[in-house]
Inverse folding.
């Protein structure tokens, strides 16, 4: 077991780079990348860093030179032979050769494209522009770099004993959560915490704690590198990025209304089984389900990622029932702002009614709340999103208006096209 406190105390980033591999990323990014490579590889996109927690002034906390060094290091990475062998030959979701030879040949030669970085009003403006399959792979490493540099900035002046106590307290907190969760019969839970983790070493420790503490209830991790190292399942399907870009490419309102379903039509051609999971909230879950083609009801399940999670799950259950599907055969994945109490409540509420699963993110891999002076290690909401496609702005509405993004006039247009009415605002914590 790695002595994390000692490693942090003796930090030398050339020994401990933040991002160690191109597969130190979420599995869903690679699945989406293959689909985009096959269907939309010539689309030009721009991704941008967005700090939703304005009170954390990253440009005043993180040294620009260190940030550039870490980003440049990411650009130097390429797929290793062992990583390529794992992706080509491993079984994912019961399927061998999930990644096709043409995609793997492209990925094996990939170097991430350049970035643009500047400071403005105490924040970093970090953007990536280029071909969609290349630029999209910046999202996870960019977030990991910023999150860990923030952690390093806060801990850099701590002594060895203070660090040992800090990590001992954080480890105890994780284990207390494990002890509560292991009481749940039929629990299925995966680590979704790569994007806003405290650090790579901490995420790896949390995964090992889940493995020992939860046994078969812990189904795997979204992080490909950790999944490979720990010989566990890589977990993931698709994300809001796909419908956001497809929608931005739509030529008129009618095409815009079809865009979220065109995404899933392309996905249907790529994947089957547990990868056929719908993410319905990009432009409002209610609107999506009301207008969804009947063939989508036959898919495996739905991921609930914004708004009130119980409301989203109930909407899915009604939708399946109205289309003659038995919800007990369907999978509902909860993945928004989860912590132990919410997991326990949702499990009790929906177990037996659907197949319940949880993608546990930031409050698994970055719960240092209350453990430092001024709460300086508390997690915050940092995202890296596609903001334009072929020169057109992207829009996300979500089931929570506090997560909406895009120009105001385009948000208004999307609300009109998708029939979005009043929505309940929920604080975005992580």
């Amino acid at each position: 077991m790695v002595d994390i406190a000692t490693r942090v105390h003796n930090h030398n980033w050339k020994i401990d780079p933040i991002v160690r591999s191109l597969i130190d990323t979420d599995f869903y990014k690679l699945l989406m990348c293959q689909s985009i490579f096959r269907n939309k590889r010539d689309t030009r996109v721009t991704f941008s860093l967005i700090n939703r927690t304005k009170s954390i002034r990253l440009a005043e906390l993180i040294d620009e030179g260190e940030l550039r060094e870490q980003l440049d290091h990411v650009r130097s990475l390429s797929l290793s032979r062992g990583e390529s062998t794992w992706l080509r030959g491993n079984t994912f979701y019961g399927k061998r050769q999930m990644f096709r030879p043409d995609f793997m040949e492209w990925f094996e030669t990939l170097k991430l494209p350049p970035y643009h970085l500047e400071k403005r009003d105490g924040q970093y403006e970090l953007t990536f522009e280029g071909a969609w399959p290349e630029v999209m792979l910046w999202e996870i490493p960019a977030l990991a770099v910023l999150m860990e540099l923030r952690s390093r900035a806060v801990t850099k002046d701590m002594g060895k004993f203070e660090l040992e106590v800090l990590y001992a307290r954080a480890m105890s907190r994780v284990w207390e959560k494990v002890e509560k969760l292991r009481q749940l019969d039929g629990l299925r839970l995966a680590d979704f915490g790569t994007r806003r983790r405290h650090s790579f070493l901490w995420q790896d420790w949390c995964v090992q704690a889940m493995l020992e503490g939860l046994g078969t209830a812990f189904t795997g991790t979204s992080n490909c590198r950790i999944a490979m190292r720990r010989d566990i399942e890589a977990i993931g399907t698709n994300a809001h990025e796909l419908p956001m870009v497809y929608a931005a490419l739509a030529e008129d309102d009618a095409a815009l209304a079809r865009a979220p379903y065109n995404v899933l039509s392309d996905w249907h051609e790529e994947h089957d089984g547990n990868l056929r999971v719908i993410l319905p909230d990009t432009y409002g879950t209610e609107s999506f389900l009301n207008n969804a083609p009947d063939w989508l009801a036959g898919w495996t399940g739905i991921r609930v990622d914004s708004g009130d999670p119980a409301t989203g799950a109930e909407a899915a259950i009604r939708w399946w029932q109205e289309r003659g599907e038995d919800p007990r055969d369907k999978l509902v994945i909860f993945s928004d702002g989860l912590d132990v109490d919410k997991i326990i409540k949702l499990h009790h509420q929906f177990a037996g009614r659907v197949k319940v699963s949880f993608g546990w993110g930031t409050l698994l891999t970055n719960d240092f709340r209350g453990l430092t002076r001024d709460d300086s290690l508390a997690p915050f909401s940092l995202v890296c999103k596609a903001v334009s496609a072929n020169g057109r702005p992207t829009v996300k509405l979500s089931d929570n208006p506090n997560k909406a993004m895009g120009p105001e006039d385009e948000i208004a247009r999307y609300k009109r096209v998708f029939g979005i009415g009043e929505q309940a605002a929920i604080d975005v914590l992580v």
Remarks:
- The longest helix spans residues 160-181.
- The mean pLDDT is 95.
